[in-house]
Amino acid sequence: MRKPILIGNWKMNGSLQANQALMVRVLPRLRKFRKSIDLAVCPPYPYLFQVRDLLGYTGIMLGAQNASGFVSGAYTGEVSATMLQEMGCRYVLVGHSERRLLFGESNQEVAARYRSVLGAGVAPVLCVGETLEDRESNRTGLIIEQQLQAVIGEVGLAAMANGIIAYEPVWAIGTGKTATPEQVSRVHQQIRQFIANNAPEASDDISQELRVIYGGSVKSANAFELFSLADVDGGLIGGASLHADEFGTIAGAL
Ligand code: PEP
């Protein structure tokens, strides 16, 4: 059985005061779900310490939005996975489409970041997904396979068992457009099938164990339908994770 997981990605939002206010409102709404689902929030780096303290012993976990592909050294502006592990992060997003598209992170760079996160003993959440142009030119499957293959080539498929895959169609992120249940189901099945096809004999059931979650304008109004799909093991939530009522209702949909 794959345990559902809900991850909030705060992106570059928040302040000391706003984070405190959000957590005061959201934690009571999440607490009741913490036994049946894994829950995590990913604030911007400077607030990790604050949010870690606010999470306290609630069982809700801390995550980060990215990590360097380097271990340490002269890489100004980078944050290593080990530092994030030391801060208490249990998850790190890798290859979010905003990183790929706005900051030029290539499949290879994403794979290096993935390796660093794994090496620090933290679970990477690998974001994959197609742009609208990819979808309209029937390249969805190919693009996602290339994104997955780069990571498989870097760390090997067996090592990915500890990670999570987040399917996030780029055209649905922060746009208010959600993929239809049919579109989501199809891609989730394709991802699982691709993993199964690439699994070495000895680790056949990795495709059944690996959690594949969905992200892209999930809100309380569509969460129940999306999370009822057989191959959807949870959600990566951007905008709606900044609203206590919304995030609480979305957690209740899992
Ligand atoms: C995201 O940032 O990963 C995301 C899915 O954003 P939103 O929910 O706002 O579309």
Q: Could you please describe the fold and organization of this structure?
A:
Its main location: cytoplasm. The protein is 43% helix and 15% strand. The two termini are 14 Å apart. Strand 1, helix 1 and strand 2 form a beta-alpha-beta unit. The protein is built from eleven helices and eight strands. Strands 1-2-3-4-5-6-7-8 form an eight-stranded parallel beta barrel, surrounded by five helices. The chain has 254 residues and is an alpha/beta fold. Helix 1 (16-31) runs parallel beside helix 2, helix 1 packs parallel to helix 11 (244-252) and helix 5 packs across helix 7. The structure holds phosphoenolpyruvate (PEP). Phosphoenolpyruvate is lined by residues 9, 11, 168, 173-174, 215-218, 236-240.
**Spatial strand order of the main sheet:** 1-2-3-4-5-6-7-8
Coarse morphology: globular
CATH class: Alpha Beta
CATH architecture: Alpha-Beta Barrel
Total count of domains: 1
CATH topology: TIM Barrel
The gyration radius over C-alpha positions equals 17 Å
List unreliable stretches of 5+ residues.
Answer: none
The averaged pLDDT comes out at 96
Quickly give the structural class. alpha/beta
Order of helices and strands: EHEHEHEHHEHHEHHEHEH
* Helicity, as a percent range: 40-55%
Distance between the termini: 14 Å
**Which range does the strand content fall in?**
15-25%
Total helical elements: 11
According to DSSP, the number of beta strands is 8
What's the story with the biggest beta sheet? 8 strands, parallel, barrel
Q: What is bound: which ligands?
A: phosphoenolpyruvate
CATH superfamily: Aldolase class I
